[in-house]
Amino acid sequence: EDVPSQTFDNKDYFCGKETFPVYESIFTEEGETIRKIAIETEKPPQIEIHVWTIRKGILRHFYVEKLSKREFEGLPYFKLITRTTLSQWKIFSEGEAQISQMCESRVCRTELEDLVKVLYLEKSEKGHC
């Protein structure tokens, strides 16, 4: 018999928790890397984009912008990387605030990479929720 395939939209896949799409955009210009991590929320219906400007591995600038879904759809370069829960997004946001202070004066490549990994949900085994 066929086993139903599990997709990102299957709520049982993440223990019944609501998940939200997370997008990423990375581009380099004039020696700087601009990395954007965005989450799409339903309430309110908007896109929250966290923008990191990195020069020589040092986080030079960090800010958050909010856009409507329509404005976001017009932006190039973003690709869906995962879905996450609001609790994981909160951990990401709090970690980001700590890193933004810590990385003003030193190279923080691995810290930024590890922070993004927080957004990826572990596939739950049935019965472990």
Automatic annotation (TrEMBL):
Species of provenance: Sylvietta virens (Green crombec)
GO BP, one annotated term: cell differentiation
Keyword annotations of the record: Developmental protein, Glycoprotein, Repeat, Secreted, Signal
Official protein name in the record: CRDL1 protein
Domain Chordin-like protein 1/2 C-terminal: 10-129
Gene Ontology MF term list: BMP binding
Highest taxon in the source lineage: Eukaryota
Subcellular location: Secreted
Pfam families: CHRDL_1_2_C (PF19548)
Principal place of residence: secreted
Coiled-coil positions: none
Gene Ontology CC: one annotated term: extracellular space
Lineage: Eukaryota, Metazoa, Chordata, Craniata, Vertebrata
Keyword Cell division listed: no
